[in-house]
Amino acid sequence: MSASGLYFLDLKGKVLISRNYRGEIEMNRIEKFMSLIMEKEEEGCLSPIIKYNDVTFMWIKYNNLYIVASTKKNANIALVFAFLHKIVSVLVDYLKELEEESIRDNFVLIYELLDEFMDFGYPQTTDAKILQQYITQESHKMEVAPRPPMAVTNAVSWRSEGIKYRKNEVFLDVIESVNLLANASGNVLRSEIVGSIKMRVYLTGMPELRLGLNDKVLFESTGRGKSKSVELEDVKFHQCVRLSRFENDRTISFIPPDGEFELMSYRLNTHVKPLIWIESVIERHPHSRVAYMIKARSQFKRRSTANNVEIVIPVPHDADSPKFKTSIGSVKYAPEQDAIIWSIKSFPGGKEFLMRAHFGLPSVISEETEGKPPIQVKFEIPYFTTSGIQVRYLKIIEKSGYQALPWVRYITQNGDYQLRTN
C-alpha cells in the first residue's frame, strides 16, 4: 500500500494529530491541503485524490474531520481508502464518537493505535478485537507494557488463542439483495443479485470450518453438472479463507474470527423475474384532481412470505387532500418525498392486493412535462434465495472434538428495486 503519512485535520485544515511513517514527505506539505480542497470545490471538480507537485493526498471526511493519507509512490488507491475507512471503524470502537473533540481528548491512545495500524507505511494490525486486548482505553496510564496477544505474532492475526465458550454455536446468514429495473409493460431492463454470507461464530479454541455450497464449478468438476447449482461471480472472501485451497478444489476452508464478520460476498448477473410486481393506473384530471389505482402482486411461491413490504409511489409535488382505500396494510402521504407509501406487514406468495388513492391537484401546470420517477419497492423474504444458492454442509473441526450447532438462515431483500410507470 505504501502510505508515507497520515493526518487528522479539523474543518479549517488545522492538523490535530499526524504520523510520519516513512519520512520522505515534509510534514508541512499538508498545510497546502485545505487550499487545494477549496480550489477544486470552486472549479467543481472535487476529488478524493488530489495531486500536488510530487505528493498525492487521498482523503475521506468523517463528521467534522478530514482523514488524509499522503504518498510519493504509485500506491494501491483502493487499499489506501479501505485502510482509511478501517481506521475510522477501529477509532469509533474505541472512542464511541469520532470527532474533533474526541481526538483532542485521546491523543496518547490514538498515537498508540496509529503505531499499531501501520509500520513504515504498510498496514499491520487493524482488527479492533485484537488491538483491544493490549491497547485498552487507559493504556497511556499503564506502567508495564503488556505482551501482545498471540494473534499479532501468529499467522492467524484475526483470532486470538484461548477463546472459550460454554455453548459452541455458529450462525450463518445468506443475504441476497435484488437490484432490478423494469418498464411499465413488465420487461426487465436490468437485474442482478448481490449476495453476502455473514457469520456469527461462538466457538472454543482454534476451530477449522469447511463450508460447502452448490457451486457450479465444483459440481461440474465432480460430475454433478445436472444438479441444481449456482454460478457465482465477483466472489470476495474474508482474509481468513484459504484462497489456494478454494482455487484448487473450491473448498471454502477457514479458521474464523471470533464473533461477527462477513465471510464472503458474490454477484450474479442474471435475469430476475420481479418478485413483487406493481401495476399502476393513473387518471389525471388537469387542474383539479389525480386518482391512482395500484395493484401489487407477489410472484414467488405460496409457501414464502414477504415481510415489511413498502411500496413508494411518486405523486405530483403540489398534490393535496389525500384520500386512500386499500384491501390490506396502511397508506400514508409523505409530502417530503412527494410520494405515498403503502406498507404491508406480511405479503404471502401468489397474492394480489389493491390500493386506491385520490388527490386534489391545484396546479395549473401539466405534470406531463415532468419526468416521472419510478415506483420503488422495499421487502424482505426469509427462508428464500433468488439465486437458489444452498449451504450443503458446514463442518467444524477442532482438536478437542466438541459438538457445535450450526444455524443457517436465508434472506432475500430489495436492493435498488424500481418499476417504471406509464
TrEMBL record:
InterPro entries assigned to the protein according to its UniProt record, in alphabetical order: Adaptor_comp_med_subunit, AP2_Mu_C_sf, AP_mu_sigma_su, Clathrin_mu, Clathrin_mu_CS, Longin-like_dom_sf, MHD
Subcellular location field: Cytoplasmic vesicle, Clathrin-coated vesicle membrane; Golgi apparatus
Cross-referenced CDD domains: AP-1_Mu1A_Cterm, AP1_Mu_N
Gene Ontology biological process terms in this record: intracellular protein transport; vesicle-mediated transport
Domain called MHD: residue spans: 167-420
Keywords assigned: Cytoplasmic vesicle, Golgi apparatus, Membrane, Phosphoprotein, Protein transport, Transport
Pfam family, one: Adap_comp_sub
Main location (coarse class): membrane
Annotated GO CC locations: clathrin adaptor complex; clathrin-coated vesicle membrane; Golgi apparatus; organelle subcompartment
Signal peptide: none
Entry superkingdom: Eukaryota
Membrane topology field: Peripheral membrane protein
Entry similarity comment: Belongs to the adaptor complexes medium subunit family.
Function field: Subunit of clathrin-associated adaptor protein complex 1 that plays a role in protein sorting in the trans-Golgi network (TGN) and endosomes. The AP complexes mediate the recruitment of clathrin to membranes and the recognition of sorting signals within the cytosolic tails of transmembrane cargo molecules.
Protein name: MHD domain-containing protein
Gene: 107364723
